[in-house]
Structure formats: structure tokens, C-alpha cells
What we know:
- By secondary structure, this protein is mainly alpha-helical.
- It contains six helices and no strands.
- Helix 1 (5-25) packs antiparallel against helix 6 (162-182) and helix 2 (31-50) runs parallel beside helix 6 (162-182).
- The model is unreliable at 111-116 (pLDDT under 50).
Amino acid sequence: MHGPTSPGWLLVALCAATGAYCLLRMRSRLEEQRRAAGGEALMGFAMAVMALPATVVEPPRWAWIAYAVVFGTVAVRTLATARGSAHHLHHLVGAFAMAYMAAAMAAGGRHGHGGGTAPVTGVLLAYFAGYVLWSGVRLVPVAAPAAGGGVGGRAVGWGDRPELALACRLAMAMAMLAMLLAV
């Protein structure tokens, strides 16, 4: 992506740390948690690579095309499973946003959208801004589970804590906002 180098490195660090935490969440006892954490780890690491400052590495056009194809495929696959699940719909929007940004970069995105914001970028910015606000509001009142509470009467492991998963998604949504602003 393009933009100042220091914020770019901060974005890389945030996305890589989020991806690493999501890998750790894959140790959950719950199958749905593991699946969601795996998808979020992929997204976090892919966002970290995509956010590398252009002054450090300028990926060739074919790399952006490959990114667009991979995340377009993820979006189509997610579309098939997204019915009835708000979380899967969020993954669908995230995969579409990644494919869209990669396609913009493959089309010469380092020069912007010709002086204006593309309507798709505006819609994605509005979605992720709303998601950040919604997630932040949901994160504030979450209380720690009572001792001995949790899934099936067992204590909730740190990988199964819903507030940590929500914080992970919030961090990635904020990173997505920053990346969309740089497209």
C-alpha cells in the first residue's frame, strides 16, 4: 500500500499481532471458534503483508492479481456459508474488501482513484466504520465470566473468551479502515 512509512509499519504490526493471536485461538475446544479463528488469522496475516509500506517492498502487478483471485475465491466460498450468520457476512465483506483493494492496486492503485473516492470504497469505509463503532460498544460492557462458569460448566479458556475474539475483530476492522483510506 502507499502512504507514510511509520503508520504503515504500525499497521503491519497490528495486523500480524492480530493474526498471531487468532492462530492461538485455533486451540479452542469449540469447532466453530477454531474455524472462525483460522479465517481471521489468514485475514490478519494477509492484511499485514498488504500493508507493507511501498517504500520497503513494491509488489509486482501479478502479486496484486493473485491477492485479488485468492480473496475473491474466499469471498465466493464465504458467500455459500454466510446465510443466517452475521459473523459469516462480516467475513464475506472483509474478503470482498481485500479482493477489491488488491484489484485497485493491480490496476495502478498507487495513483489513487483519479482524484476522488470510488463509490465502492465509500461503502466499504462506511461499513467498517460502523462495524468499529458497533464492536467497540459491544466490547465495553462485557464482564469476565464467573468462576466455574463457561461452556458446559467448565471454565472458559483464554482462547474461547468472546471479548478477546471481539477485540481481535475490532483491531482488524480498524486496520481495514486505514487500508481503505490508503487505496
